[in-house]
Amino acid sequence: MADAKSFLLTLLGGDGMKRSGGKAARSERAADVRKHLDSVTLADVFDWRVLGLAFMFAWQLVVFFSPVIHYSTRNSLSHFNSVVGFSSLGMIFVLLLAAIQVKLFSRIMEHAAVRWVVPVVLTGCTITLAIVDIGTILQQPWCSIASTLAGAGLGVLYLAWGEVLHRMTIVQITVKVSVGFLLATICFAFMVMIPKSVSIVLTTVLPAGTSFILFKVLKRRQNEAVRKEPAFHEVAFSIRAVFSLGVLFMVGAFSRSFFLAAAPIAGSGSYPWLFLVAALISMLIVCGPLLSSALPDFAAAYKTSVFALGFAMLLLPLLEPGSIAASVVGLVTYCVSVLLVWIVLARIIGLYGLSPLFTFGIGWAACTAGLLVGTFSGALVLSFVPTTPRLLSAVVLVCVCLLFFAYLFLFTESTMGRLLGGGHLKRRPFHDRCRQLKAEFGLTDREEEIMLLIAKGRSAPRIREELGLTAGTVNAHVSHLYRKLDVHDRQELIDLVEQTH
């Protein structure tokens, strides 16, 4: 009941609305959003990381969501086992291997051969699928083999990018993943518009681009073999992650299977642009709650995203099948899930010190398995039962119930704290973390006081009022504090305090 009450309060605006009224709460959240956006630099919006993520997302969208490379896509249940099924199985195998054998997989990732094997495999799989699509040279089992290897290669890239993202602040993670995904949808629309032969050539280059940025420009290197792992219940965490994140993707895929079967998504000419619109809407749904509090709150983003997914599923039966609105709503359910999982997994690593390979391996394996089960289950039911309005309503009801069950009982913030070994791994109070930073960086008592107030989101006038200091004195202490902590603004200081364990 406590989780349900918290969830409803979040949807209505949280405790701030309850205390100060709707107008004051909205003004406060708008100010928090502006504060977080002011801390975002041009390098956060577009740099090598954003470009590399965009290349990876774009390759995935073109290969698996359009007939450019192969006629079988996630929007068509025909030829299901050859592309979607085998690519999902290949990806799940690599992700679970990384989660189960962290040290072994880390050593494999450190080999220089991985830097060129992954792009070569993905490029070869892209070319093979394009040739199979022609149907005169290669046929089965080459389609299944290429799909499996493509999924495995994509899994390696997911793990490598997960290691890059988890070192960033929550605002940087949110901006880079969101902008990268948005650029990928723009690239996707462009690739579908141009002649197919040109699109195939460009698609084969995308894996090399993301791998070059990942392994050469960013020089990704993380020695997991010597990383000290915290004590936590791996089995319990794995089960909760599988059921919660897996359910999130499963219900989306299951519902989309029925509604796409009832009326295929809007014509191929408009489909990529609808994907772009869905990506923009999804960015607002995920990023808005995340940045609308004094401290970035991924739990609020998770709550609001679950509500948005449930609302979208309830809305689908009311929309005209095959309409632009219905198509956008269906795509939003996918885009929200993708953005949310990237941000949540990276944030969990930063908060609790988990292994990136384990966390991203378990998390994305659960999501991919959920996507596979949802799509397959939908196809299986449709093979025996005709599509009727009553069936669609029943499907929506089941999906929404599963969705809220996952939120209310599986992947909550309180259960996360218990799963990770009890109280000693929970986030420590501000006072304790600030005291630790004071000892590490040699701060004065007054600097510790000011750091504590900044970490709580206090404004400069409020700090002057609480401490009875002049503006010049506060500014001088803040300047000394920034220099000692090697930070440049309030947001970096807040992130430093928040990440201290």
How does this model look, in words?
The protein has 501 residues and is mostly helical. Helix content is 77%, strand content 0%. It contains 23 helices and no strands. It has helices spanning 2-11, 14-20, 22-38, 42-45, 48-65, 81-100, 102-110, 113-134, 142-165, 170-193, 196-217, 234-262, 271-291, 298-315, 324-352, 356-382, 389-409, 413-419, 430-441, 445-455, 460-467, 471-485, 490-499. Helix 8 packs antiparallel against helix 9 and helix 15 (324-352) packs antiparallel against helix 16 (356-382). The longest helix is centred in the middle third of the chain and has 29 residues, at 234-262. The two termini are 30 Å apart.
What pattern of helices and strands is seen along the backbone? HHHHHHHHHHHHHHHHHHHHHHH
Question: What's the rounded overall pLDDT mean?
Answer: 75
Taking Cα atoms only, what radius of gyration do you get, to the nearest Å? Answer: 24 Å
Number of helices in the DSSP assignment: 23
Low-confidence stretches: 1-21, 73-80, 221-232, 417-428
Strand runs, count: 0
- State the separation between the terminal residues, measured CA to CA: 30 Å
Question: Structural class from helices and strands?
Answer: mainly alpha
What is the percent of helical residues?
Answer: over 70%
Largest sheet, if any? none
Q: What is the 3D shape?
A: globular
The percentage of residues in β strands lies in: under 5%
Tag the structure with descriptive keywords.
single chain; 501 residues; mainly alpha; 0% strand; globular; disordered N terminus
